């Protein structure tokens, strides 16, 4: 999986990517093609670089701002560099692109060499080749300094025009065009020797842009540097960045949660509005960020590295594919099971498993999936509304509704919810639906009928 695929598959991750302050099109395209990292050491090294850049941003903001402005001048010219390698004769625009890259690369190299996070190569040889006048300006044309013969032809052509010898001037012009093509051919040939470091320069500059963006995001959102490589995942103060921002805009507070996931399934129960789906999405976003080398939305995090993340958190596209919600969910579960049996290290996240079928069979499906994941020691977080789940697994419940001062309305009900998690050996789902409905002012006659039916089923 690469970043652009994760954006489509993991809700909430798009928000994080779109809020990465990448300054160059090159950096953005390289990041979108970045692969999911599964080597803990590789992830730790990337996180270490982000940490170093974050420290630089704190200590020397203006210097870093100058680097960011320079990055905006860097274009994605990987296609042009590929043409250099192929030995194609380049046109003036492509030669300008290479000169501009070499000039910007030199300035960036000088600015960040002491940072110790990237190694921008020296392209001064390219500058000398494409800037024989030594003007060091972002402009390119075949000037007289490239060829004495070309300079002589242009001088004679100018004299002919001054004397009114138009025919002679046209012949000289045609010869000068031929010489310009020769110069382009020779420059293209000479540039082939720089093809390798030109490509390296683009790669290192993109890395610099990405590291700066990751560090800026970590500082702006208060993200934590995760420790990775262990067998368990432990969050303190896990939060969902997009939802937190939305609540802040409304003058409300997002409640972070603590969570520990070990090998095997963890089952989470809780009433409606208890934040179970948000919890799953928060974990999914954090895992994606970790494995793409980013800080995560938590006060502290220790995280296991996995081969892939598989989530079943609903999909509005199911109907477009002609599938019922249950059928689509079962196909996702089947794919998860197949990959677990194949020996892959997965993080599995399932929201309200089998909620669209009848309670008897739904409860059996939850038991079966939880038991399977636990036996295969697959790290999983499964939420459910069903009571009486008997399969061996760790059980948590969301504390849920807590009565407080003031009147409950549909606008402020979240202020009366406690989203923290607690151990729940009983596995009984809280019965708070009718209580919450009553507090919201739902018709009393309707609620009385519901209470009568609920009493009959107890």
Tell me the distance between the termini. Answer: 47 Å
Residue ranges: pLDDT <50 for 5 or more in a row?
A: 316-320
Largest sheet: 6 strands, mixed
CATH class descriptor of the largest domain? Alpha Beta
CATH architect. name of the largest domain: 3-Layer(aba) Sandwich
> What fold name goes in the CATH topology slot of the largest domain?
Rossmann fold
Number of domains: 2
How do the SSEs run, as a string of H and E?
A: HHHHHHHHHHHEEHEEHEEHEHEEEHH
Task: Give a verbal description of the structure.
The protein has 458 residues and is an alpha/beta fold. The protein folds into 2 domains: 3-210, MutS, DNA mismatch repair protein, Chain A, domain 3 (Orthogonal Bundle), CATH 1.10.1420.10; 223-457, Rossmann fold (3-Layer(aba) Sandwich). Helices cover 52% and strands 12% of the residues. It is built from 17 helices and 10 strands. The strands form 2 sheets. A 6-stranded mixed sheet has the order 6-7-8-4-9-10, sandwiched between helices. Helix 15 (359-375) links the parallel strand 7 (346-350) and strand 8. Helix 4 (40-59) crosses helix 11 (195-221) and helix 6 (78-86) packs antiparallel against helix 11. The chain is elongated and about 110 Å long. The model is unreliable at 316-320 (pLDDT under 50).
Question: Secondary structure elements and their pairing?
Answer:
Elements lengths: L2 H7 L3 H6 L6 H8 L7 H20 L1 H11 L6 H9 L5 H21 L11 H7 L17 H15 L3 H26 L3 H27 L5 E2 L4 E6 L2 H9 L7 E5 L3 E5 L6 H16 L8 E4 L4 E5 L12 H17 L4 E5 L8 H17 L3 E6 L9 E8 L15 E7 L9 H7 L4 H14 L1
Parallel strand pairs: 1-5, 4-8, 4-9, 6-7, 7-8
Antiparallel strand pairs: 2-3, 2-5, 9-10
């Amino acid at each position: 999986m690469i970043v652009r695929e994760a954006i489509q598959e993991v809700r909430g991750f798009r928000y994080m990517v779109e809020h990465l302050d990448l300054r160059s099109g090159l950096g953005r395209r390289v990041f979108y093609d970045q692969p999911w990292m599964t080597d803990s050491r590789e992830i730790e090294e990337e996180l270490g670089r982000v940490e170093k850049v974050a420290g630089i941003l704190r200590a020397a903001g203006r210097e870093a701002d100058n680097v960011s402005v320079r990055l905006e001048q860097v274009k994605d010219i990987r296609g042009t560099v590929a043409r250099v390698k192929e030995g194609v004769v380049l046109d003036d625009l492509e030669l300008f692109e290479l000169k501009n890259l070499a000039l910007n690369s030199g300035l960036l190299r000088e600015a960040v060499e002491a940072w110790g996070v990237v190694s921008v190569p020296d392209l001064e040889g390219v500058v000398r080749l494409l800037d024989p006048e030594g003007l060091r300006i972002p402009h390119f044309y075949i000037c007289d300094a490239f060829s004495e013969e070309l300079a002589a032809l242009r001088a004679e052509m100018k004299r002919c025009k001054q004397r009114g010898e138009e025919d002679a001037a046209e012949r000289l012009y045609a010869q000068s065009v031929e010489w310009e093509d020769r110069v382009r051919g020779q420059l293209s040939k000479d540039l082939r020797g720089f093809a390798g470091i030109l490509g390296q320069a683009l790669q290192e500059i993109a890395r610099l842009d990405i590291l700066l963006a990751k560090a800026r995001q970590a500082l702006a959102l208060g993200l934590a540097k995760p420790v990775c490589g262990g067998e368990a995942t432990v969050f303190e103060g896990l939060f969902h960045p997009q939802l937190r921002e939305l609540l802040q805009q409304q003058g409300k507070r997002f409640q972070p949660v603590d969570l520990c996931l070990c090998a095997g399934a963890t089952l989470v129960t809780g009433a409606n509005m208890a934040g179970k789906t948000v919890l799953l999405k928060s974990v999914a976003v954090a895992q994606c960020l970790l494995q793409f080398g980013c800080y995560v939305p938590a006060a502290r995090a220790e995280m296991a590295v996995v081969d892939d993340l598989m989530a079943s958190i609903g999909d509005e596209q199911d109907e477009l594919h002609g599938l019922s919600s249950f059928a689509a969910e079962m196909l996702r579960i089947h794919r998860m099971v197949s990959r677990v049996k194949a020996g892959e290290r997965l993080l599995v996240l399932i929201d309200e498993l089998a909620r669209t079928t009848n309670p008897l069979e739904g409860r059996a499906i939850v038991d079966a999936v939880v038991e399977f994941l636990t036996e295969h020691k697959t790290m999983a977080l499964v939420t459910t509304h069903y009571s009486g789940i008997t399969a061996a697994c760790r059980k948590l419940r969301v504390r849920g509704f807590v009565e407080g001062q003031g009147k409950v309305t549909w606008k402020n009900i979240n202020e009366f919810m406690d989203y923290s998690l607690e151990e729940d050996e009983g596995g009984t789902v809280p019965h708070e639906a009718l209580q919450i409905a009553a507090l919201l002012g739902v018709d009393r006659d309707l609620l009385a009928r519901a209470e009568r039916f609920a009493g009959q089923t107890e």
